[in-house]
Design brief:
Elements (H helix, E strand, L loop, with lengths): L5 E2 L5 E2 L12 H18 L6 H15 L5 H17 L2
Antiparallel strand pairs: 1-2
Helix pairs in contact: 1-2, 1-3, 2-3
Length: about 90
């Protein structure tokens, strides 16, 4: 199965939003977001204190807010880009 992604002007992947998802996160959402963030940090070799980690967290929240709830897909969509960005530092 081939998956293609759409990217915004800044180069971040965009998941088409849905009106059924609002921007309030419950405990399960927060646990999922934290888990995805931690896994992405580890795979990209980033520290929590880095600017890239902050950008990564924002990108994860953006995708989740847009309706993407699959943690593995979020990780797949973001890790490649953040590995490349880390390599440019």
């Amino acid at each position: 199965m081939s998956t293609s992604f759409v990217y915004d002007a800044a180069g971040y992947p965009v998941f088409p939003g849905s009106s059924k998802h609002d921007k309030v996160f419950g405990p399960d959402d927060l646990n999922t977001l934290q888990s995805v963030f931690d896994a992405c940090l580890q795979e990209c070799g980033l520290t929590r204190e880095s600017e890239l980690a902050e950008a990564l967290g924002s990108a994860i929240i953006r995708l989740y807010t847009q309706g993407q709830r699959d943690p593995d897909l979020i990780k797949t969509m973001l890790t490649g880009a953040f590995k490349r960005r880390r390599g440019k530092l």
